[in-house]
Design brief:
single chain, alpha/beta, D-Maltodextrin-Binding Protein, domain 2, 2 domains, 4-stranded mixed β-sheet, 11 strands, binds fe (iii) ion
């Protein structure tokens, strides 16, 4: 090697060791950037840890982690629905999360039973009804929606959607597979139309007179309430919320969650970020910005959520939703749920 190059290399190396290595975490996330970026910026501001965010579709991110294996640059996976977090755990792309802060702050049923992920925010999937067409005393449980009374009156999205798969998975846990299949058949028989669109579309369809009942996650309703569009506000105003199954297991809930990847090279920094996301400030921010329930007890939910009233949530460990996912998908298919 020429003397000059050698000298340059040595100087370069010296310079590198002299500068402290920049701490960073790399996130694969399926959340809308607006629902997470401001929080990550605040984390960087407070800790000096740089955060790189890669956004993508849920299942595609899990596939990407699998394909990349040990070489994956990702430290953290953020995605919605316990069913999907379970898929990531089963795909062997996560590592157990050991954090006393997480254990102390997040109720055990909102975390993986083997600590592979923790919930960050909670959402419920209640029944929305058209005021004037339906009164609360006509409603009771999810199961009762199969009554002939509701024939042609129910809007709900496709069975290919994980939120519905998780709802049925929770029902399998409570009532068994046979009863859940009967439920799915009865629900299909009462649908106002073949499933189409997302949760917001079901709420809009109900408000437009296409159906009297819509099943949707709470934050979609919250978005309509807080929307700048008067038309959205009107949709929300036409609908009431009903919390089903208050006399037994409670209303179905789910989470958006976070996990440390198996390939992570920044486990400590990743843990710090998870704990930051569980701070009162972050939990409140999430609730205000996306109308999701805090997973940490004692943190206030947004006004839009508080106005929906209190309810008893199904306390089943959400790991069950992943375990029962395959059975749920199969029975929904047999029931003809498109
Ligand atoms: Fe969603």
């Amino acid at each position: 090697m020429k003397q000059a190059t050698k000298k340059l290399l040595t100087t370069g190396l010296l310079a590198l060791t002299a500068t402290p290595l920049l701490a960073e975490v790399n996130i694969y996330s399926s959340r809308q950037e607006g629902l997470i970026k401001p929080l990550l910026d605040k984390f960087t501001e407070q800790t000096g840890i740089e955060v790189n965010l890669v956004s993508g579709k849920d299942d595609a991110l899990i596939t990407r982690l699998s394909t990349e294996g040990k070489r994956s640059p990702a430290d953290l996976l953020i995605t919605a629905d316990a069913g999907r977090l379970y898929r990531a755990k089963e795909a062997n792309v996560l590592q157990p999360l050991k954090s006393d802060v997480v254990d102390a702050k997040v109720p055990a049923n909102l975390r993986d039973s083997d600590d592979f992920w923790t919930g960050l925010t909670m959402r419920a999937r209640p029944i929305f009804y058209v005021k004037g067409n339906v009164t609360e005393d006509e409603l009771s449980t999810y199961e009762a929606l199969t009554d002939a009374h509701w024939k042609g009156r129910i809007c709900i999205r496709s069975s290919s959607n994980i939120y519905n798969q998780s709802l049925i998975a929770s029902m399998i846990d409570a009532n068994g597979e046979n009863a859940s299949e009967e439920f799915a058949k009865g629900l299909v028989a009462n649908m106002a139309r073949p499933p189409s669109g997302g949760d917001t579309d079901q709420l809009k369809a109900a408000a437009a007179g296409l159906c009297d009942i819509a099943i949707a996650n709470t934050y979609y309703y919250g978005r309509l309430v807080n929307s700048d569009s008067a038309a959205d506000n009107e949709v929300a105003a036409k609908l009431g919320v009903f919390w089903p199954n208050q006399g037994d297991r409670g209303t179905h809930v789910n989470v958006s969650g976070i996990a440390i990847t198996k390939a992570s090279k920044n486990v400590e920094e990743s843990k710090q970020l998870i704990e930051f996301m569980l701070s009162t400030e972050s939990q409140q921010w999430y609730s205000e910005v996306n109308n999701e329930y805090p997973v940490v007890a004692g943190v206030d939910a947004s006004n839009a959520l508080t106005n929906l009233g209190e309810f008893k949530a199904d306390a089943v460990n959400l790991t069950v939703l992943g375990v029962n996912n395959e059975a749920a998908v199969k029975l929904m298919d047999r029931a003809g749920w498109k």
